[in-house]
Amino acid sequence: MSFSNAIKPVRKAVFPVAGLGTRFLPATKVMPKEMLPLVDRPLIQHAIDEARDAGIEEFIFITGRAKEMLETHFDHQPELMETLEKRGKHDLLEKVKATALPEGSLFLTRQAKPLGLGHAIWCARKLVGNEPFAILLPDDVVLAKKGCLSQMIETYNEIGGNIVGVMDVPREQTASYGILDIKTDDGKLVDIKGLVEKPKPEDAPSTLSVIGRYILQPEVFDHLASFEKGAGGEIQITDAMAKLIGKQPFHGLRYEGQRYDCGSRLGFIEANIAFGMEDPEIGKQVRDLVKRFAA
Ligand code: UTP
């Protein structure tokens, strides 16, 4: 496939949710990691809301064994809604209603075995088709005034191509991330000349890392189809993205906001405190609580 210069709009978002969530065992033995609550919404709901705010129209889940709860969360629940209505719990009713997606906008496919993020994305190839698409990893949560994906789509609508959300990490942590090899950097937008998955600190070409937000062109599926195993013996999205560089524009965007790794216990606790402090109902109490702990 050759790359066309026309900027096609991003209408679809892929949510890979078929991972095992081993870092959260035993909590994730039965419950999907993406259903863990961040304040009062499960992680998957935060990701869907961010995508919806960014104008996404089609939501594609890559789900797997024992992950059914993720789709039922977005179902209508008439009995619950009736009960809340009868009891006059209108604010709760509004929160429940806000979980619903427009009918026919949620698409599901399954990854039979969790062979890696790249493989999960490849499973969405038929549902994405020949158009650009976003990927949101629900365990990466960004606290921001304007949603991270909205910021990325704004930039995409100006420059097109492929864009990943990026942040600086301490050098000793590069082995946990996909790391950028930088061509040029204006402080916000980075022109990328290479990508390396989980390099050792001494081998990392920079300390700028990819977070779980991507806008990619459909040609990435051609590279995913080779099922090449990368870091950790998994099929990595980073390796397929790296093959697009040089053929298509590829940028990193330093988004405004704070990212939390809710796939790790510490990141999850940190995120609950940060989001809790911003919560319109309990924010003040959470801030007081944090002060009490610090004292
Ligand atoms: P992670 O590597 O953070 O998730 O993948 P994991 O493998 O579930 O967690 P740990 O490391 O064992 O604790 C990021 C996202 O990609 C999905 C996960 O569900 C998560 O949302 N994923 C990962 C898949 O859908 N399939 C895979 O094969 C791997």
Question: Describe it for me?
Answer:
With 295 residues, the chain is of the alpha/beta class. It has a single domain (12-263), classed as Spore Coat Polysaccharide Biosynthesis Protein SpsA, Chain A. The protein is 31% helix and 24% strand. It has helices at 43-53, 68-72, 78-86, 90-97, 117-122, 125-128, 148-159, 220-224, 237-242, 265-278, 283-294; strands at residues 12-16, 37-38, 41-42, 58-63, 106-110, 133-136, 140-143, 162-168, 178-185, 189-197, 208-216, 250-254, 258-261. It has a five-stranded mixed barrel. Strands 2-3 form a two-stranded antiparallel sheet. Strands 7-13 form a two-stranded antiparallel ribbon. Strand 2 (37-38) and strand 3 form a beta hairpin. The longest helix has 14 residues, at 265-278. It is globular, with a radius of gyration of 19 Å. The protein starts with 11 loop residues before the first strand and ends with a helix. Uridine 5'-triphosphate is lined by residues 16-23, 33-34, 62, 111, 114-117, 119-120, 137-139, 263.
Helix-strand layout with pairing:
Layout: E1 12-16, E2 37-38, E3 41-42, H1 43-53, E4 58-63, H2 68-72, H3 78-86, H4 90-97, E5 106-110, H5 117-122, H6 125-128, E6 133-136, E7 140-143, H7 148-159, E8 162-168, E9 178-185, E10 189-197, E11 208-216, H8 220-224, H9 237-242, E12 250-254, E13 258-261, H10 265-278, H11 283-294
Parallel strand pairs: 1-4, 1-6, 4-5, 8-12
Antiparallel strand pairs: 2-3, 6-11, 7-13, 8-11, 9-10, 9-11, 10-12
Helix pairs in contact: 10-11
This protein binds uridine 5'-triphosphate (UTP).
